[in-house]
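The pair is quoted verbatim below.
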Amino acid sequence: MNTSMNKTSNPALILASSSIYRRELLTRLQLPFSCISPEVDESILAHEQPQETALRLAQVKARKIGKSHPEALIIGCDQVATLDNMQLGKPLNHVNATQQLRMMRGREVIFHSALCLYNPLTLSMQAEVVPYVVQFRNLSDAQIENYLIKEQPYHCAGSAKSEGLGIAIIEKMTGEDPNALIGLPLIRLVSMLENEGVNVI
């Protein structure tokens, strides 16, 4: 738990995620929080659009943690990457990551980062998708292989991990909040927290 600033008047804050990257991002707000992995089925439903998938999963994760922590505010997140409207999930292994990056090289990929803040006591659910557009460099097979060996981004949507060496495979990034690419849109989260009476500063 991060206790760098103890704001005792605020309700407990729980990040429904096992991601170390989201945890590091949330630490920037200097609010005490804990992390709990929601362990949900992340399968894509038939005829579901990428934004719908991300938003649904973010809410499912938050609601699951909210059942056992009804007095806390729950932050749910999910991210789906798309190339020409085709969903790119987490590759999970080297072979899949290689295939993804070969498809993505020289192309534009949209990362749909869903964020929700759930209050189980009031059943209030603030939820939104914050997109971020990434133009990838036209990488050679050797560059892709070198990147994957060094970074191993197998649990990142689209095999892209911009907070590390992944920045070297990106040509341009466009969006409202660079934190959205990492998976936790902090700018939007601050507004959601304020709506629940939690002032970050």
